[in-house]
Amino acid sequence: MGDAISPRLHCSILGPLEVRVEDHRAVIGAPKQRLLLAILLCHANAVIPSEQLIDSLWGETPPRTARKNLQVYVSALRKIVGDRISFQGWGYRMRADREELDLLRFLELSRSGRSAVRSGDLPVAASQLGDAVSMWHERPLVEFRHVPLVAAEVGRFTELFLSVYEDWVELEIELGRHVETLGSLDVVAARFPARERIAAARMTALSRCGRTAEALSHFEGLRRHLAAEMGIDPSPLIRQLYQTILRCDGPPTRNPGPAAARPRSVRALANRLPRDVDDFAGREAEVRRVLEEPAPVTVITGGLGAGKTALAVHVAHLLASRYPDGAVVIPLRRHGVPRPAAGVQREILESVGLEVAGVREDDALASVWRSWLADRKVLLVLDDAPDEESVRTLLPGTTSSRVLVTSRSRLSGLDSVARIGLGDLSTSEGVEFLSRMIGRDRVAGDLPAVLRIFRRYGLSPLVLRLLGARLAGLWHLPLGPLADRLDRTENVLDEFAAGDVSLRRRFEESYAHPSWPHRAAFLALGALGGPVFGHEELVEALDGTGEPGERVVESLLEAGVLSISQTPADAEVAAHSLSYAMSPLAHRFAAELHAGPHAAPHGNRER
């Protein structure tokens, strides 16, 4: 699929969209084709679901041939960029490296420059950050500003640029180049009048050039703008700078950036990780990937009970020594309800001694959050993320910190992240898991019964942990009769409970809530014989649950309810030969919901 050889390519999205192939500018005239390429480049090296691409290209009323048209556009783009665009079963991915996409080169220079700051080599840092700043052009991808999927990424790029620009301009002033910085500061400060670090840098540069009145006037303009637009006052730090200039004491030797912004009372975040699981077993490849992954953000996804949080906490303990400013797990849901990002930020900032009670606007609070993280090395575990936006708001603006995200959803809208998908454990991992809980001799002594349980109920870590806890309490009984008992009972879900942890309760919290957006589709799955479904069978059953069946399948894959159980050689043209699977016990629960008195009718369930 695609060309055998990809041509030499360079793409620019930090300004107008531009593509150069073998040093010649490529002409991409069709508007939707240009938009498709812009979206893929904004999310380079990440899979964008076909559903999102169709919505972006055609809006709420796509033509009946939208999927075919999308394939035609992709085919046309491949004639320009080669086989860098690939189909991944549920969406498309454009592969690029730092030499092929200006955004990736910008990010690399930013990381190198900030690393040089931490090592104390300020001239090198200023040079590398300056190279990154010079790559930015006025209003990136302005022709696509009406497309939410592009506009959101441009907003993120702009925030990254401003953070890098602030680091660079403060270094330039510290190195005595305040005269040279004023030209760019005049332009950037006018475009972003609420950025306090930029305002502080301009005030400092003006003061050092002997233009005190202009420096004081800039502060007054900032104060009026913040009051009118956000209803807040300038921060204490910039007010202190104003008073220093007003007293003609001269500005501080270093412009107050993130490092200087720390009040003396700020405490260290410290290691706040919950205890590691003593009998953690399996996932060796995944643990190794997280430990060796250079990306600052790793997203760990999988269905309910896949062990996402256990893996993240286990790896966080192994990584914690690399992050001297602290490590913490932040639950993004409370009692199943998503937590507002501003509440999370406020809780953490107040816990380290920062006074944020007077910060009323969410944007202003987010700025304090990013400034606090900017020069620290912190490990954040964002647990059970409900959606992409809940994660984006909490991500640091710099790459000195590390973030592990867990979610049942794939969070495909997040870009520039490493992804690890968790399925069931392997049979050998399951045997090792149970052996650590109930003893190797007991497992080895009745291995056929153990394997029978695995085949019928799956190998998710949650199921195995609950099973192991039950078996440990029934130490006097052999495993064979216990397996028979599981096979005989009608309410087998109730057998998977230990203490205050119940599989049924976990399913009810996740799948049974009437407001859950996939509830109708989940009920439809319960009407089918499962837990493995053929493509055509599944699409037919899911038609009429709110959207066309193909889209519903994609949404269930995104939500982690379904997984692809086998992938044909040419997934793009042979999607009909795919089969999908769900957890056997989740399918039991779906069947119970379907058969219940409040279930919507979706046909007769096969038995």
Describe this structure in words.
By secondary structure, the protein is an alpha/beta fold. The protein folds into five domains: 1-156, Winged helix-like DNA-binding domain superfamily/Winged helix DNA-binding domain (Arc Repressor Mutant, subunit A, Orthogonal Bundle); 176-261, Tetratricopeptide repeat domain (Serine Threonine Protein Phosphatase 5, Tetratricopeptide repeat, Alpha Horseshoe); 284-422, Rossmann fold (3-Layer(aba) Sandwich), CATH 3.40.50; 439-502, no CATH class; 512-595, Arc Repressor Mutant, subunit A (Orthogonal Bundle). The protein has a five-stranded parallel beta sheet, with helices on one face. Helix 4 (102-119) packs antiparallel against helix 5, helix 7 (178-191) packs antiparallel against helix 8 (196-208) and helix 13 packs across helix 14 (362-374). The protein starts with 8 loop residues before the first strand and ends in a 12-residue tail after the last helix. InterPro entries: AfsR-DnrI-RedD_regulator, BTAD, NB-ARC, OmpR/PhoB-type_DNA-bd, P-loop_NTPase, Sig_transdc_resp-reg_C-effctor, TPR-like_helical_dom_sf, WH-like_DNA-bd_sf. This is AfsR/SARP family transcriptional regulator. One of its GO terms (molecular function) is DNA binding.
